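Session log. Operator J.P. requested a structure for one protein chain; no other inputs attached. Running the standard single-chain path with token output.
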Amino acid sequence: MAQEEKEKIIRRPKRLPITFVGVVFVLILVYFIVQGILFLTRNRNQAYNIGAPDSDRAAGTYRGMILREEICVGAEGSGYLSYYASGGERLKAGTLVLTTDENGGLEERLHLLYSGKDVLQRDSLRRIRESITDAEAQYDPVNFETALFVQTSVRAAVLNRLLEEGQKSVENILPVGSFTEQRTRESGFFLLWEDGYEGKKPEELRQSDFDPETYSTYRLHTSQETVNAGDFVYKLAPENSFTIVFPISDQDADRLQGRKNLSIRMADGTEIRGAFSIRELQDRTLAGVLQFQKFGGNYLDSRFLEFQILDTEITGFKIPESAIVRKNFFVVDRAFVTSGGNSNQYGLLAETENGAEFVPATVYLRSEEEDSFIIGDENTAYVYSPELQAGMTVINMEDTAGQQRRSTLGVTTSVEGVFQINQGYCVFKQILRVSNSLDTAYTVIRSDMRYGLQPYDRILLDGNAVGENDFIYE
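Structure written below.
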């Protein structure tokens, strides 16, 4: 009997007790897991802290083209080319600069002729050492073209001294008529490249000529190349003077109008002053022209250079270029700008099926007290709202003639700004550039803009990573 009662006992599985504390613990655990996943997967943004206004004399960075008198010279004979002058040297008239050898092997003959002999005078050895020192300073391991320059320069220095000091011996080892010397007909700076802009005047240029993508790289001849009579082999710049031509905007033209002289700062920090004028290019775009009577020998290696125009002292905030974004605003007559109801919010009255409806918007107007608020004239307003679309009709209810005026939205302009993130979300703040640095990673903006940036504001370092009003994570 006892055995039968024991077999009737049914064992139930043990269950964990569900308590309030347990439920809370599970919910907290899930919350932290979700937050951890979001933390690991979300895009993190970096902030840049605006410092106190800084001052500089630079009023903008420009890229200009160097023009000067340049005389291209062709080869007087055919054959293998050997240079005896280095690019950038200032030569006297009658200086031996190159030879052409129909049979080739001139350099090998010279080396064999003087092999094991101490033939070079002390002055010649000094000039060769100077050439090697200059070549070391000019060589850039990143730019292969500099290797051609320095190779040609050193080779030319050595051959020049060997040929000058052993002229009679060289003539005896070469076949008659196979060797042609070429000497300069006038003095000037000796250059080994051409690009088609020799002898150009500012008025003959176009805006496209300043595009680095379309500019054809120069051609450099080296020793032991073969040339035909008449081929370009070098050019001379007779004078130390030079001209810089650089494109300018209408705003630049207004700012610089009437200036007779300008000071500029080169990339190496050198400051020079020259005569200035504004001219129209062949395609009717505007360019600034700076003329200098000296220092041309310092800028012989390239057709283009970057520089800054120096003006009166300029003060502003220095910000990274990566923070700057562009935002499109509708351009309207400022008479259409109104405020809504009892609020101070500005916007436009848009015509809808139900009548006129007030659309709040971001509105930029030129300040009546100062001109630093927005680029434009006193009759123009720049308006932005996601609710405004091209083709919408806006209404001016307060026309002086007692009649309503209507206008269709369509014309837009691009305004530069940054995203301020003081409150944790992105607020667009308009900026105005006052100077670009030769360090293209930064620019200087005005620090006196009403409703603009203030010292110690925080802005988004990468302005294109988010949109306006987005919440950001750092």
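Operator note: The first strand starts at residue 47 and ends at 49.
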